[in-house]
Amino acid sequence: MNTFPKGFLWGGATAANQCEGGYREGGKGLSISDICTGGSRTQAKRITPELEEGTFYPSHEAVDMYHHYKEDIAMFAEMGFNVYRFSIAWSRIFPNGDDCEPNEEGLKFYDSMIDECLKHNIEPLITISHYELPYNLTKEYGGWANRKLIDFFMNYCTAIFKRYKGKVKYWLTFNEINGAMGKLGGFLSLGILNEGTKDFMNQEDDPQKRFQGLHHQFVASAKAVQLAHELDSNYQVGNMIIYATTYPLTCKPEDAIAAQKQNQNFNYYCTDVQVKGQYPTFAQRVWDDNNVKIDIADGDLETIKNGTVDFISFSYYMSSCTSADPAKQGEGNLLGGTPNPYLEASEWGWQIDPQGLRYALIDLYDRYRVPLMVVENGLGAIDKIEEDGSINDDYRIDYLRKHIEAMKEAIQDGVDLRAFTPWGCIDLVSASTGEMAKRYGFIYVEKYDDGSGDFARRKKKSFDWYKEVIASNGEKL
């Protein structure tokens, strides 16, 4: 049937570092996001190893969900959410990352936030690590390139798995783990800050550190899955990837091979490890091409084999084309590639391709045969408040409508899809550009790139539209 199954999870998604604020409240320590300045489409955000007086750091206040979460969750409930994906800030639980005991104030904050969700019959879907590594683990240990982070991560997982047992069912280990396949992930995903790095979009790169750090995350994720299953048989743990639909630019065979290779490297490398429990057959070629040699400790491969995830979750925003001809490789989207001449793009150059989501769902389900969740999808745009106070974001409604229609088609194709949580259900700080002007939410927050704003919340037109979508289980679009 071309319908969403009964019990389908409808909701939205955020990340602590992009919405919470309260960066020094409740005993929280600095995270890697807290040392990133604001930016824009024309000016990249910077990474400052030490906080600079007079510099605007958007994550420090973000949209102040730390003080508004009850109001925000009530608005999510009004839309009809039955799931809310959010992240726990690691540095709110272990301020330095290597602390011996967790911070009780931080644990209590998420107790309250989870309880607020449950009060409104909203299922928490929690990301354990979402671009918010405690900065001390970067500064003193070199980020995930250091194997010691596996133990620090497990201390963190133990604390939250035990604390929230009986309240939480769904967990995700690392947000967009395959982002580390590209140089941007060196800092964002792995907390590796190489000397000389200042410009967030042009980080100094060290592939050896990146791939070693990714291996450590694979081991940590597998250990976390095993721990979760031991502590609570009700726990379901998923991975989380960026799915980047890639088409060959032309029907030239070399372009088709280039697209296949990109798909393997970006979409399958990490997912094979986390779902199949082993490195893919092409892993050695990836390592050789990047001139890296992975240090795999005794027992690592067995740990990975025994710690496979229960489901796949992924973000999908855009697609791109690729070519074997370097001269034809342009700057298509955030992830590189070449723009597709058949597609329109957002104001930030992200090409809009609903059919690419259907492609992603079919591809992942055919390859892995485990349940899927679309946990990020949405349109970053400039929203205007009209004189009457309304915000008519028809462009966002159109974007989401077409992607939901694509999900319907994938379900009819036989895909086991369980959830849809559009990104930035409430406005938040953009991870890629560090700005507020790039808005995603159904809820507008009066916070601006110059630091002004009183954090007032107001509904956009898409709020009532999505409310009707959920009430009809995806039938009224």
From TrEMBL:
A GO term, aspect molecular function: 6-phospho-beta-glucosidase activity
Organism, as annotated: Breznakia pachnodae
Top-rank taxon, per record: Bacteria
Designated name of the protein: 6-phospho-beta-glucosidase
A Pfam family matched in the record: Glyco_hydro_1
E.C. number: 3.2.1.86
PROSITE patterns according to UniProt: GLYCOSYL_HYDROL_F1_2 (PS00653)
Keywords, comma-separated and alphabetical: Glycosidase, Hydrolase
Record-annotated membrane-spanning stretches: none
Gene3D superfamilies registered for this protein in UniProt: Glycosidases
Annotated family: Belongs to the glycosyl hydrolase 1 family.
